[in-house]
Amino acid sequence: MEIIISNNANKPIYEQITSQIKAMIMSGELQPGESIPSMRALAKSIHVSVITVQKAYEDLQRDGFIDTAVGRGSFVAAQNRELYQEEQQRIAEEHLQAAAEIGRMNNIPLERLTKILALFYEDTE
User: Fold this and answer.
1) Cys-Cys crosslink for 32: which of 72, 74, 78, 83, Cβ 3.0 to 4.6 Å?
2) Beta-bridge partners for 66
3) For residue 37, how far is the Cα from the chain centroid?
4) Distance CA 32, CA 76 (A)
5) What is the DSSP string of the chain?
6) 3-state secondary structure of 100
7) How do strand 35-36 and strand 66-69 relate by DSSP bridges?
8) What tens digit of pLDDT does each residue of 107-122 get?
9) Which distant-in-sequence residues (6+ apart) come within 8 Å of 60 by Cβ?
10) What's the sign of the alpha-carbon dihedral 85, 59, 95, 23?
11) CA 21 to chain centre
């Protein structure tokens, strides 16, 4: 499992770990029942504090992405992908609401905003 941490990112390190593991689970790269590295092993491999990884694992467990058993380790949970997609949709809706408000306040036509969104959505760079 490869986790890439950026010190320049706007997100705290534990959130970077959480979002990357969630993405691996959602993409099928990590399968239900598959074990994930221990907190200590992951912390050592990405050169961060065990407490940072612990926070990420706690968030993943709280959100239903992993199960942790004392003495056995942590495993990918058999969870509902719709839950994650719903969470991501809610975040997108917040950004779209802000864009709509900016558009209304500045008399930007809805058609123009829609075209801009389509360009961003289809941009694969």
Assistant:
1) 78
2) 76
3) 18
4) 5
5) ------TTSSS-HHHHHHHHHHHHHHHTSS-TT-EE--HHHHHHHHT--HHHHHHHHHHHHHTTSEEEETTTEEEE----HHHHHHHHHHHHHHHHHHHHHHHHHTT--HHHHHHHHHHHHH---
6) helix
7) unpaired
8) 999 999 999 999 999 9
9) 18, 21, 22, 66
10) negative
11) 7
Amino acid at 79: Q
Secondary structure element (H or E) that encloses residue 86, with its range: helix 81-105
pLDDT tens, position by position, 20-75: 999 998 888 998 889 999 999 999 999 999 999 999 999 999 988 999 888 889 99
Residue 125's pLDDT is: 63
Place of tokens 């990590």: 30
99, amino acid identity: A
Residue 125's identity, in one-letter code, is E
Contacts of 39 (CB under 8 A, 6+ apart): 50, 53, 54, 57, 74
Residues in CB range of 95: below 8 A, 6 or more apart? none
Tell me how far apart the alpha carbons of residues 65 and 2 are, in angstroms, rounded to a whole number.
17
Q: What is the pTM of this model?
A: 0.66
